[in-house]
Amino acid sequence: MHGPVVPGWLLVALCAATGSYCLLRLRSGSEPARRAAGGEAVMGFGMAAMAVPAAFAPPGVWMPAAYAVVFGGGALRALWLARGGAHHLHHVVGSLAMVYMALAMAPGSTHPEGHAGHAGHPGGGIPLLTGALLVYFAGYVLSAGARLLPSAGGGAPGGGVPGGGVPSVPWGARPELALACRLSMGIAMLAMLVTV
After folding, report:
1. Cα–Cα dist 4/52, whole Å
2. Rounded to an integer, what distance in angstroms lies between the CA atom of residue 145 and that of residue 51?
3. In whole angstroms, how far apart are CA 65 and each of 35, 74, 83, 145, 153?
4. Is pLDDT larger for residue 154 or for residue 113?
5. Which residues does 15 contact at the CB level (< 8 Å), separation at least 6?
6. Burial of 30 (C-beta count, 10 Å sphere; 0-12/13-18/19+)
7. What is residue 37's DSSP assignment?
8. 99, 72 in Cβ contact below 8 A?
9. Going by C-beta distance under 8 Å and a sequence separation of 6 or more, which residues neighbour residue 59?
10. Structural contact between residues 7 and 191, judged by C-beta atoms closer than 8 angstroms
């Protein structure tokens, strides 16, 4: 990615922590919840890898293609799983956005204005598509953030215990933490899209 090194490393840490929690979620919950957690773990770790600042590890020419293959496979998997739930459609959009960013960082792709792209390579995206993805993920972040707020009835966000008590569910099955991870990945996606 282009941009300052410190925000890049913060983005790597956020995405890696999110991916790690998603791995923890693989150990609990129903089968559909575990499938969603698996896709989110791949997305989190993939985003962390893609966010490593170019000053630290200049990417090879093959990396954009590798990212496109990994996230393209994730998009196909999410599309197949979308038959069972609308949340997987969000995974499709997220995976395709990562494919788009990987292709935008590929050598030879250029902005109309000639701006530098990801990882020090000439890069570029389609401004209209980038804008549409920014609007989508901004709406997703606002929606997920609103769902984390306590309800007017005094209940905890995400179905926790009212009154601030500790729920009796394990860490890997807490719905508010899963939603917080999705919110974190949405924010990270916005940060990455801004650099396209």
Report:
1. 11
2. 23
3. 25, 14, 28, 33, 49
4. 154
5. 44, 45, 47, 48, 51, 184, 185, 188
6. exposed
7. H
8. yes
9. 105, 119, 121
10. yes
How do residues 84-134 score in pLDDT, each as one tens digit? 766 778 889 999 999 999 998 877 665 444 334 444 444 578 999 999 999
Cα–Cα distance between 51 and 169 in angstroms, integer?
33
Q: What is the DSSP letter of 150?
A: P
Which amino acid is located at 73 in the chain? G
Where exactly are the structural domains of the chain?
5-194
Q: What's the whole-model pTM score?
A: 0.79
Listed in sequence order, the residues at least 6 apart from 119 whose beta carbon sits closer than 8 Å to its beta carbon are 1, 2, 54, 58, 59, 63, 105
